[in-house]
Amino acid sequence: MSPLFVVSSSNNQNRGPPFLLTENVVKMATEFPRNTSVNFELCIICQTQTDEELVEKPVSHQKLFDAIEERSHYGDVKLTEVWSYLKGFSFEELEKCVSWHRKCYQETTHSGMIKRAKERYERELSGRNEARRKSCDLPSLEAKQPLTRSKTSPYNRDVCFFCDGVGGYRQPLHTVSTSTAGSSLDAAIKKEGDEKLHVKLSTSVDSKDAHAIDIKYHKNCWTKHVTNVLRKPSATSKIEQASEVAAKIEFVTMTEMALKSGKVMNMSQLQAAFDTISQENNVKGKSCSRKTIKKLIQAEVEGVEFHKSKRVNESERVSIKESRDVAIQLSETVDEDCTSNMKILYDAAVLLRKSINKCKKWVFTGSLETISKDNCPEELYCFYRWIIQGPNATLSAQEKCTEIHKRAMHLAQTTISMCLTERQVKNKKSETLQSTREMPEQLAVGLAVHQALRSKEIVNMLHGFRMSVEYNRLLRVESQIEAHVLQRLEQCGGVYLPPDIVKGRHVFFAIDNVDFAEDTCDGKGTLHGTAMAIYQRKEPDDEQPDLRYVVIPIKTLTAN
């Protein structure tokens, strides 16, 4: 099928390129009378030649065709002729050759004009009785008209806000002077839906800030329009009441089950549980007080008892009579179980000591973060974590879990460093006890204190409490680090590179000036230094630096 061009004989300067048509489109166009033909080179809607250019590469064909079809159905004469011609073509054929003016497209697809055409069409169908049409249309139009400020009396701060009456001896005017009263006034007007009062209140910038415009009122008017309105139950308040009832039932049931299972709870826990259950049931408002919760439990739970704590800052404890009787019976058997408990603790100590003796000794290799489960037994760590945390396995915050982990690791490392070997236990001649195991925490504390204070006495004192390594060990570690730095300087040509830097791999440099005392009176004593940081990507196969065995020839050091 060869393509054909439809070109008009008139001036085509402002029309853009001609449209490409197929023989099928031309054939279908010739089958219609001349008075209904449509020129595809012109706007498909107005079919007139104007100075306005057609839309290039239009895309909203479907929306335009739907609007033309709908308006032709409602009796639009002009669009009816266009649609009678266009409906004979397929959408794919029209999409290739149809264009329009932007203004014509907006007028045709305007939702308001389509709505008015539909109303006219429906009025024609219902009949031509003008009186009946007006009687049907006027009430709806009046109902839709909003209440404006011009239709109400202007706001006067010298009279009552509600009745526009002046103050007298028996009914004096009161002024809104608190933000709470302003919020109540705004809530009552919105709940009642009084448009006149709403227009008056709109004089204020903030509808809740009634005291800013000095609103005055009679006491009776305030009771009628605010207090009584807020007290009226609404649909939402009924839903909220149902939610409150559901929350109370769930709270009482859970509390009763917990108390009957033998748990002893305090009022702070019960208050937090009640607030959580209320939020889950979509109960809005402030949290319930402990006094109200106590009354609710006393009324619903049978045999409940409240016990005051010895400490002032602790809340009351809640239990039931059955749990108390069971606790009394258990207390009588405490003495009998004391011996068995001590036996259990002795067995636990034996197991922990065996696990400590089996673990590998930690050796300083240049990093204080190389401790693993092989150096610190998992049994010892869990034992201290259970002592600190208790039987509860869930915590409220991640920060608390991290803090407990730090404390458990501190106790575990201290215990390992102070643990005696079998040889030390059997040796009865020696009066001194030396640590046979070195842990990262004790070494880190010693290095930090010695670097900050440079005091031998403080380091030895901390070593006596087994919180640090001995002073001579610190000197050996510092000498070892020093020797390693000198060896790196020799290997790198007089420039120190950290042992983690891998040669041949791309590095990043961050350089910045470090200036202290830039301006002095005599111009002396200034410092203009430069700090440089090196960054390099770390690979999983990289080897960790080892500082245990560093041997530097003395001749090399003296020669340099």
Strand order across the biggest sheet? 5-7-6
Please count the beta strands (DSSP E, at least 2 residues each). 9
Shape: extended
What percent of residues adopt helix (DSSP H or I)?
40-55%
Question: How many whole angstroms does the radius of gyration measure?
Answer: 45 Å
Number of domains: 5
- In the predicted model, the low-confidence regions spanning at least 5 consecutive residues are 1-36, 130-143, 551-560
Quaternary state of this entry equals single chain
Distance between the termini: 94 Å
Strand fraction band? 5-15%
Task: Give a summary of the structure in a few sentences.
This protein has 22 helices and 9 strands.
Fold and architecture overview:
- There is one protein chain.
- This protein is extended.
- The chain folds into five domains: about 5-110, no CATH class; about 150-230, no CATH class; about 235-330, Winged helix-like DNA-binding domain superfamily/Winged helix DNA-binding domain (Arc Repressor Mutant, subunit A), CATH 1.10.10.10; about 335-425, no CATH class; about 505-555, no CATH class.
- It is mainly alpha-helical.
- Residues about 1-35, about 130-145 and about 550-560 have low confidence and may be disordered.
- The chain starts with a strand and ends with a helix.
- It is about 50% helix and about 5% strand.
Q: What descriptive keywords fit this protein?
A:
22 helices; disordered C terminus; two-stranded antiparallel ribbon; three-stranded antiparallel β-sheet; mainly alpha; disordered N terminus; 560 residues; Arc Repressor Mutant, subunit A; 5 domains
